[in-house]
Amino acid sequence: MTTAVFPGSFDPMTWGHVDIATRARSMFSKVVIAVAHNSTKTPLLDLETRVALAKRATQPLDGVEVVPVEGLLVDFCKGIGAGVIVKGLRGGADYDYERPMALMNRSLTGIETVFITGDNALSHVASSLVRDVARHGGSIGRYVPDGVVDAVAAALAAERAR
Ligand code: PNS
């Protein structure tokens, strides 16, 4: 009975994230999607919206839950008794980005990170690209679950109005 934590900014949730959550759930008895703060990024969507969209997208997945996380990820993992962190890899650049975080998290508490190879058909789908396509007027509907298109449009409209 291992609980896995799948952390990220999820800004916004994409079908790539849903794919990784589904694959993780096939390996672990419970998957907790931890919507966390990345101090190197300013999110487009607020935390509440990112959590709501992730919950809606994974609602059909049994054994998958979504929670907001403040503070250190490893402290959250310890607090819920999670045995492993899972992250998705689309390619080598993802590994280069993820490796220091996996090493730091293991150095902090000993928790291991398991990397899951995502669906090749989704390897071009990244939250950053989805935001950029939407920001420049492109259609993002095929890359994201229900509710995300409208939430991203509303956040971009609010951004332009500021
Ligand atoms: O989707 P992202 O932005 O690549 O996810 C990065 C995230 C949110 C998982 C990472 O920044 C994180 O774990 N943030 C929580 C604070 C923390 O534990 N920082 C130390 C990371 S080694």
Automatic annotation (TrEMBL):
Enzyme's top EC category = transferase
Q: Where do the annotations place ATP binding?
A: 9-10, 17, 88-90, 98, 122-128
Which cofactor is recorded for it? Mg(2+)
InterPro entries reported for this sequence: Cyt_trans-like, PPAT, Rossmann-like_a/b/a_fold
UniProt-annotated binding residues for substrate:
9, 41, 73, 87
Catalysed reaction(s)? (R)-4'-phosphopantetheine + ATP + H(+) = 3'-dephospho-CoA + diphosphate
Main location as per UniProt: cytoplasm
Keywords, alphabetical: ATP-binding, Coenzyme A biosynthesis, Cytoplasm, Magnesium, Nucleotide-binding, Nucleotidyltransferase, Transferase
Residues of the site described as Transition state stabilizer:
17
Q: Subunit notes for this chain?
A: Homohexamer.
What name has this protein been given in UniProt?
Phosphopantetheine adenylyltransferase
Q: Which species does this protein come from?
A: Demequina litoralis
